[in-house]
């Protein structure tokens, strides 16, 4: 049987810039292919899976191991398009923490230490993925997004962290609104894209 491959747009060792694990060293694996298509996406080049080279699980794991990273983030694109069982099993065998960032539009297949679900209006999140989430991260692009963010709370487990993050191009406009919202609704926290302030990937 041929070894499983995945379309990898890019991979790099950096600092996680946002959400609960912000500030931690992490190796990012950005998979090609997306079934969501956010209009404000800053990695639209990730959308067509066929545009990116297929890499084997062994190749991916060798690169991660060589980096010395303690944590791995699988992102996209939309990583829930793929069965990640083989990849995550291999990464866990190396003693690594495995995190995923997903819109949660498909069943999550794999072994994950941290699941960040960031639902988008362009395609519904699966409720079972919200129930699995350690972290809910909602991008605030318009003031109407606050009410939309609240609609996901009832599906979360009680331990899940809840973050509101301004869309980068609207940060100056949305951040003051988020600050006031979190002050009035302290079950939410603020996430910022600190990697962009640090000018790192």
Q: What are the low-pLDDT stretches, counting only 5+ consecutive residues below 50?
A: none
Helix segment count? 6
Over all CA atoms, what is the radius of gyration? 16 Å
CA-based shape: globular
* CATH homologous superfamily descriptor: Aldolase class I
What would your notes on this structure say?
The chain is an alpha/beta fold and 201 residues long. It has one domain (5-34, 44-198): TIM Barrel. The protein has helices spanning 57-67, 85-93, 127-132, 145-150, 171-184, 194-198; strands spanning 5-15, 25-31, 54-56, 71-75, 97-102, 114-117, 135-140, 161-166, 189-190. The protein has a 9-stranded mixed sheet. The chain is globular, with a radius of gyration of 16 Å. The chain starts with a strand and ends with a helix.
Short descriptors:
TIM Barrel; 201 residues; 9 strands; 6 helices; alpha/beta; nine-stranded mixed beta sheet
Map the helices and strands.
Elements: E1 5-15, E2 25-31, E3 54-56, H1 57-67, E4 71-75, H2 85-93, E5 97-102, E6 114-117, H3 127-132, E7 135-140, H4 145-150, E8 161-166, H5 171-184, E9 189-190, H6 194-198
Parallel strand pairs: 2-4, 4-5, 5-6, 6-7, 7-8, 8-9
Antiparallel strand pairs: 1-2, 1-3
Helix pairs in contact: 1-2
Brief summary:
The chain is an alpha/beta fold and 201 residues long. The protein has helices spanning 57-67, 85-93, 127-132, 145-150, 171-184, 194-198; strands at 5-15, 25-31, 54-56, 71-75, 97-102, 114-117, 135-140, 161-166, 189-190. The model has no long low-confidence stretch (mean pLDDT 96).
